[in-house]
Amino acid sequence: MFRRPAQHERGHATVNHGTTQEAGPRRKDARRNALTLLDAAAEVFVASGVDAPVRDIAARAGVGMGTLYRHFPTRADLVIAVYRHQIDACVEAGPALLAASPSPHVALARWVDLFVDFLVTKHGLAAALRADHARFETLHAYFLDRLLPVCAGLLDAAVAAGEIRPGLGAPHLLHAIGNLCVGAERDRDYDARRLVGLLVAGLRVRD
Predict the structure, then answer these.
(1) pLDDT higher than threshold 70 for residue 116
(2) pLDDT at residue 119, as a whole number
(3) How far, in Å, are 54, 72, 121, 144, 185 from residue 51 at the CA level?
């Protein structure tokens, strides 16, 4: 069960606000800790699901439980933050991969790998938010608004380069990838990445 520790578990440390100069580094440390926790939580969720013990997440991040609870008071807060963090990472990766990869199709394949990682982490989100349907719907809208344009840009670049045929929309590709990833929830031996790789490879125009 994910809960905020009681006062006697947290201790009674006195807060020292310090000077403005001291506050800057503290804010940077807090942001760094939050990002480290998000990355650690994503890794633990992939391996063990969203119900994994939060102590495992804190240990992987190298921080104490108090730090984890200060940033994410409930499991739902943590799961939502991981979800948004990974969406943002996928969004940022799209243009970067397109610029760095030898071809748009390679960039698309690499981006899809990141998207598959995201989908595996996403499993269990609905259960974690079962009591907050509105929050779940907001996240789904965020998902579509942020990821569809990036995927469309990668597809358009591959079409312009003559690597894939036109006509495949980003919503259809993401939906197909999502369907291929569903099996990973029920079967540990199910290799979603391999199947999705075959799908992306099949998009390429053959000479």
Answers:
(1) yes
(2) 84
(3) 8, 15, 11, 25, 13
